[in-house]
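Try this one yourself first.
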């Protein structure tokens, strides 16, 4: 029974991630010339991060009311926007693929409670849900991420209307 439940969860996670991957990829930013590749790369990354953070912060559907995740895959050069539920399902599926033990009753490391749990998370800062604050924070985060590395960003809504943003390199 547990194996069936786990298989169903994995299939749900896979289908959710497939929809997310197809609908949320961002191929708008391609490096144009190798001479200015580093600067353009950080600028492009900052623009992609800013766009996704604004989608989380200005959410009208309620999907990101508690915050959301931005996941960048360097291998695929795609940026994905995920709700907490989608991120948690993806984390469970990822652990399953790695052969790690999955305890669905314990959520430490998969669903953050304000500050994300797990190794590598660093607080990037706080910002209001306006373009200027988000752009400044996006540039700061883009500058901290080495070229060619995958990363995750978590934005969490605060009671005063601001957002706390964390990131980690994966």
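Now uncover the answer:
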């Amino acid at each position: 029974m547990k194996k069936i439940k786990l298989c169903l969860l994995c299939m749900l996670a896979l289908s959710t991630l497939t929809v997310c991957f197809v609908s949320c990829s961002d191929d708008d930013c391609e490096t144009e010339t190798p001479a200015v590749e580093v600067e353009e790369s950080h600028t492009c990354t900052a623009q992609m991060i800013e766009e996704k953070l604004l989608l989380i912060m200005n959410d009208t559907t309620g999907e990101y009311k508690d915050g959301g995740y931005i996941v960048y895959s360097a291998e695929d050069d795609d940026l994905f926007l995920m709700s907490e539920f989608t991120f948690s399902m993806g984390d469970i599926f990822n652990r399953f693929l790695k052969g790690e033990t999955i305890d669905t009753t314990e959520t430490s490391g998969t669903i953050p409670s304000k500050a994300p749990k797990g190794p590598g998370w660093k607080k990037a800062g706080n910002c209001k849900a306006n373009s200027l604050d988000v752009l400044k924070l996006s540039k700061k985060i883009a500058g901290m991420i080495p070229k060619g590395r995958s990363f995750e960003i978590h934005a969490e809504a605060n009671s005063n209307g601001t957002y706390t943003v964390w990131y980690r390199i994966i």
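Discussion: The longest helix spans residues 2-24. The helical segments are 2-24, 37-57, 84-98, 131-144.
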